[in-house]
Amino acid sequence: MPRILPRLLKKLEETLSQEGFDDFNLNHYRFRGKSLWKPPPPNPYPSFKPSDYPKSILLEPQNPITSSRDYIRRKTLPPRVYLPERAQKRKNDLSDSPRRMSEEERGWWASPYLRMLSSPLRRCFQTQQLLPSAFLIRLGVFQAPSYKPSRFITPNSPPEAVLLPDGLEHSKFRARRSGKGGYILCWKDAIERSRISGTYKRIVFNARLPSILDQIRHLLRLRVLQELQLVVDALRFRPLELVDKDRPLIRRLSRTEWHQLRTTGVMPDTVTEDVMAVIVVPPLNRHPVTKERPKGLMSSLPTSSSDTEELKPPKFHRLALPLCTLHPTRSTDSDTLPRVDPLHVDFRSQIPLYNGVSLFPDPSQRAMLLKLLCRVLAMERNARAKPIIAMREAEARSSNSPTLAQDKKDDESQANNRASHAFVLCSDAHAALSTDMASVGLALWRIPMFEGFGWDTDLSARTKEDGVSEIPEGDAIDNEDASELLESPWVERYKYRSMFGDERYRVRI
Question: What is the tally of structural domains in the chain?
């Protein structure tokens, strides 16, 4: 202590003599993406002919042999949707400066299906095929609790490991907890097949894969709620110049539009190409015993059956609604409806309709979904009403015109056409400037994908073996008919047909 005090007093005197302290800058401690891109050499395509060099090729500066790294082509850093005005170039890499997305690039970024196809490629340990990671589920390796003494743990007999879903939640809510893991198809049949056959042991030989289907279902639905929560947080700080009253992020279909959709099966004319999805979420009923509505929860743990057994309302035998149905849009060139072929559909004109009751069977999650959707609606309504209210107040102060009475009549006419329980989710290049709605559509699409929507069996490989006549092209085949025809839900070859035109992934098992 006597040795430290003199040095501490000297240090304090030096700091007091200075004009001020050094400003703490977080950029020195924040890790940013490192760019490997370098400007190409003057001659990006060198020649290897000896006649082109008066001396030896090794004596030339920047020759492709001794300086081969200079000729490696690398990608630049991806552009960002929002770029601050005072964005400075990185100190370590001055050649690759930050870049903002163009309007065309924002349109691609606002499409959830292009976002899925552009996700990083990963290999499925069940099918050994490279697919975008948005079509896969990551299973992390976790050490199971073991009562085995430490002296018996050797490299040849390590403690037992367990494969659990990891990385399904958003990184802002929960990051990945396992450094080692594998990827498998986002399909419940693929996971069950891997659990039975034991192909998951390719990741870790002493691993165990329990029944995790319910946990994956819960986390996939939780991801939708987390993405909507991030949309709400982004709208709180949205500038007023980005508010567009003609292109809202979320709106409700009117009752006439919803009736037209139910009767014709075609999206109304008001549903444009910017519409990403339609989700129907009716309000939750009160419990007959407690007289209270379910409260919204965003817990990572699924609710146990014992906790909600006493509060379950009486069940009614009703037909189960499908998770997702695709509805075509009306053709813009003519009033005729487009021809829809169940096997060869141009999915660019299809809009998914999600049923909230089937998509979120847990009342607590469905209550939270409805709360977040209504919160976004309220924020959109308030943002659009601010300039209108200011303009009306200015007109009322300037002149006593009968505009207020006319506005009341307009409000009455709008009240007659009440809104339904169908929410329309929009995503375009303009909406990408304020928030990321495409992530919500991506999270919604993964739920029916996991349940088997879009995964169709390839019947041509098994029809001859089973003695079934060939199926003509254009005939509609349901998943139930295919399973009865093939006598097994799992076939040797299958393909995924989704909203991507003729894009097919043929996989051999």
Answer: 4
In residues, how long is the chain?
A: 509
Range of the domain at 465: 454-508
The maximal CA–CA distance of the chain, rounded, in angstroms, is: 97
pLDDT in the model for residue 361: 92
Does residue 368 fall inside a structural domain?
Answer: yes
Beta strands in 108-160 (DSSP E): 121-123, 130-132, 136-143
Same domain, yes or no, for 265 and 348? Answer: yes
pLDDT, block means (10 residues), the chain with 509 residues: 80 68 51 72 83 87 85 84 69 68 91 93 92 95 80 76 92 89 93 91 89 94 95 89 81 90 86 86 86 87 61 57 86 45 49 92 93 92 72 61 48 63 91 91 95 65 38 38 36 37 37
CB 250, CB 425: distance < 8 Å: yes
> CA nearest 360: which of 436, 309, 413, 284?
284
| DSSP structure class, residue 33 | P
Q: Domain check: are 271 and 413 in the same one? A: yes
Burial 153-189 (b: 16+ CB within 10 A, else e): eeeeeeeebbbbbbbbbbeeeeeeebeebbbbbbbbe
Strand partners, 329: 267
Shared-domain flag, residues 323 and 201: no
The answer to whether position 109 is within a domain reads: no
CA distance 137 to 167: 8
Instruction: Identify whether residues 329 and 365 lie together within a single domain.
Output: yes
Cα–Cα distance list, 334 to 37, 261, 330, 345, 491 (Å): 49, 18, 8, 19, 42
Same domain, 437 and 478: no
358 and 246 inside one domain: yes
Bridge partners of 183?
A: 124, 138
Residue 328 lies in a domain: yes
Can you give the pLDDT at residue 9? Answer: 85
366-368-374-380 Cα dihedral, nearest 10 degrees: -130
Tell me the CA end-to-end span of the chain in Å, nearest whole number: 71
Contact 136, 125 (CB under 8 A): no
| β pairing state of 324-328 and 350-355 | antiparallel
- Cα(178)–Cα(163) distance, integer angstroms: 10
Is 278 within the bounds of a domain?
A: yes
Among 144, 285, 294, which residue's Cα sits nearest to residue 208?
A: 144
Task: For residue 478, give both structure tokens.
Answer: 């349901």
Predicted pLDDT of residue 442: 95
